[in-house]
Amino acid sequence: MSSADYDRMKEVKEFAESKIGVKGLSDSGIASIPRIFIHPPQTLSQLKSTSSSSFSSIHIPVIDLSNLDSPHHRPKIVDQIREATKTWGFFQVINHGVALSVLEETINAVKSFHDQPHQVKAKLSVGEERRGVVYTSNNDLYRSEAATWHDYLQVWMAPQPPEVERIPEICRREVIAWDTHAKNVAETLMELLSEGLGLEPGKFKELTFSDTRLFAGVCYPHCPQPDLTMGLASHTDPTVLTVLLQNHVPGLQVKHGDEWVDVKPVPGGLIINAGDFLQIVSNGEYNSIQHRVIANPCKEPRLSLVMFFNLAKWKESDSYGPLPELLSPEKPAIYRNFTRQEYDDNFYSKGLDSKSFIDKIRI
What we know:
Number of strands: 14
Strand content: 15-25%
Shape: globular
Order of helices and strands: HHHEHEHHEEHHEEEEEEHEEEEHH
Helix content: 25-40%
């Protein structure tokens, strides 16, 4: 088909309305992917450079949270987390207090959801992007230049909890329990991140940085042409912090310098990354880093359970910016204050991207 004959929006609409999802396409045994998923040459050429990367032996930091309450160990852990969040924006945590059996049960429950016939999942395809429960492929399907090879179940957990019966019964208990587990881990890490800035441990909790929570149970099924598309396009998270639990199937990559580094999940570990909001409020002391997911060439699906944490209470002026406690004549603000409206509009007006908001408010 020539470009002149290709009506992208028509094909996007047909795919969305079919409600078959990417997994449905994959399960049908297709040998080639629909054109709406094919990415431009400049994106695909960057994929190819990764396999020959000299960085293949480099890994994101792994931080052991055992002995966290020991006066001897805690300062060392604070230093490790501060350094990892500044230089990598990503790290893995082990001995985080959540049992391995819970991690496995949670992954298996979300896998069971995605393994259902698409007709069952399609009942959840009607919903709002910013609240409640919804199942879809690509939250930016209509906004992006090319679709990516994944489906996901999205549940807004807080500040407005979902109607419990709307959470699919097949994974309801596990998703609700995971909200508590992930929040406990995130709040522990926020204490350490706060201390790393020289602030009181409870500062981020007081600022409601864990009180808006969005759960996404993402499935990256087998892709028959993984060199033509992406599992998830390169982006930074707009939020404060992300806690990610995944199965053993690889695919996540993090930008480090000019190279893309594979994230090899540590068994029993959780992957943590800083979002744009944390970079801004820390006045650039912490960094939100580009990451992406390559399309899955394995027969087994990659499962990624993501919990995004963000503030729930904006300042009375409905604005935000670097925390005043971190500013001084020697360290002036490098970002201007911004409004909630500006922040929301930036994310929901386009496809996934990297730090466009940070660039917009940089002084």
